[in-house]
Amino acid sequence: MARKLRNRPEREVKKIEIERNVIEQILMDVKDAVKKNRKLVLYAIVGLLAVFVISIAAVIAADTVSARDEKCFEKIMDDYARYSAVGDSGKIKSVIDDLKKFVDSTYFGFAHAMGYYALGNIYFNQKEYLEAKKYLVRFADKEPRTNLAPMALMKAAVALEEANDLKGAMELYRRLEDKYADSIIADQIFFNTARLYGKMKDVFNSRKYYNKVISAYPESAFVMQAKKRLFMLGAM
After folding, report:
1. Closest listed residue to residue 235, CA positions, set 196, 203, 208
2. Whose CA is closest to 169, among 204, 132, 122, 143?
């Protein structure tokens, strides 16, 4: 007489047996498929291994290129620091040429992007404001998620102000407000926007943005300046 399993209903036993049979059948089908398509399976495995090896090689190559580019960039910037310290304008121009060649001959990585940022700042210091704007905006386009991106756009906007392109500067301040209103320089974004509206004789919007600085960033270093400028606008 067959012995019944304790604490296990007959339906549960049958269910387990059915599930086990299904799994065994699937495994057998897989085994048969592998036997029938041995070459295809072998090619698939070799292909996966090749993809894995190529991926690893690509990562190693990218790291090698990035390390090389970073060393090159550091050397160029060391040269700039040395020549700017003594005010050698001829050598500084040579550094600018080296930086341009560097960004044109590299394609990715931190050093590549920083080449644009460095060029923008160097041109700004040289008071070549339109060139400064061009390279600073390129950096922000390439690295939009870094903390340097809003700083680059801010300096680009100031560069356009210096070049007397107030409309272009306002477009950059609007871009800053749209994308970086929660950045670490948000208070300065709103302050500069208010200041530029004042330059453009738009008193309503100038007041609006000065009040935004005061209400949203009460601890900001720009609050006192905003209050003074609001007072001056009221006296107009």
Report:
1. 203
2. 132
